[in-house]
């Protein structure tokens, strides 16, 4: 979706409502952890205040993942707020490399690439089915969220194994 700057200029500070969807196929291709995705609903508004253009709102979709710890498929409703500020080429605004203001080159604001980037940056690199997921047992493969196993997964640094024997003998 593109917004013509002249449309915002003529509104004289009154917000222009926005509503569109992002292509789920394109987003799924760009993030390896997304297994499935509903169309991403974008709702927001655009407004010109002073020399700057502001676009804000939120995106929402249901995203299918596989848990990074226990490999269980799950679906999560993701809501991503966004806020972007744009500066036209003739604006008297100083832009530096740390600025969050996006310089415009033409007479339109191209929203789709920015919205895709904002959405993808909110997707976790290691999705978890729940915050305290216990994962799989590295020895037997049991899902420790469903049942505990009797495996001893105590890792002892081989360089300190002799020290463990020393303390075992001193407690007897």
Q: Could you give the distance between the termini?
A: 74 Å
The percent range for strand residues is 25-35%
Number of helices: 4
Helix content: 10-25%
What shape does the CA trace take?
elongated
By secondary-structure content and strand pairing, the structural class works out as: alpha+beta
Uncertain runs: none
Number of strands: 8
- Taking all Cα atoms into account, the compactness measure Rg is 25 Å
* Domains (count): 2
Order of helices and strands: EHEHEEEEEEHH
Task: Describe the main β-sheet briefly.
Answer: 6 strands, mixed
Arithmetic mean of pLDDT: 86
Protein name: DUF177 domain-containing protein
InterPro entries: YceD
Pfam families: YceD
Would you kindly provide a written description of the structure presented here, covering whatever features stand out?
The chain is an alpha+beta fold. The protein folds into 2 domains: 2-122, no CATH class; 134-172, no CATH class. It has helices at residues 5-10, 24-30, 111-122, 161-170, and strands spanning 2-4, 16-22, 36-37, 40-49, 52-66, 73-87, 101-103, 108-110. Strands 2, 3, 4, 5, 6 and 7 form a 6-stranded mixed beta sheet that branches. The protein has a two-stranded antiparallel sheet with strand order 1-8. The model has no long low-confidence stretch (mean pLDDT 86).
């Amino acid at each position: 979706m593109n917004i013509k700057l002249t449309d915002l200029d003529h509104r004289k500070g009154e917000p222009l409502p926005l509503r569109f969807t992002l292509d789920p196929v394109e987003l799924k291709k760009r993030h390896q952890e997304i297994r499935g995705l509903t169309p991403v609903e974008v709702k927001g508004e655009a407004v010109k205040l002073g020399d700057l253009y502001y676009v804000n709102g939120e995106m929402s979709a249901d995203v299918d993942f596989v848990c990074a710890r226990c490999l269980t498929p799950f679906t999560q409703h993701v809501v991503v707020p966004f806020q972007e500020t744009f500066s036209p080429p003739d604006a008297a605004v100083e832009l530096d490399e740390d600025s969050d203001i996006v310089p415009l080159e033409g007479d339109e604001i191209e929203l789709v690439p920015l919205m895709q980037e904002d959405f993808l940056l909110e997707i976790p690199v290691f999705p978890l089915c729940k915050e305290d997921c216990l994962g799989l047992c590295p020895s037997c493969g049991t899902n420790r969220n469903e049942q505990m196993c009797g495996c001893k997964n105590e890792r002892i640094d081989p360089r300190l194994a002799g020290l463990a024997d020393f303390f075992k003998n001193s407690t007897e």
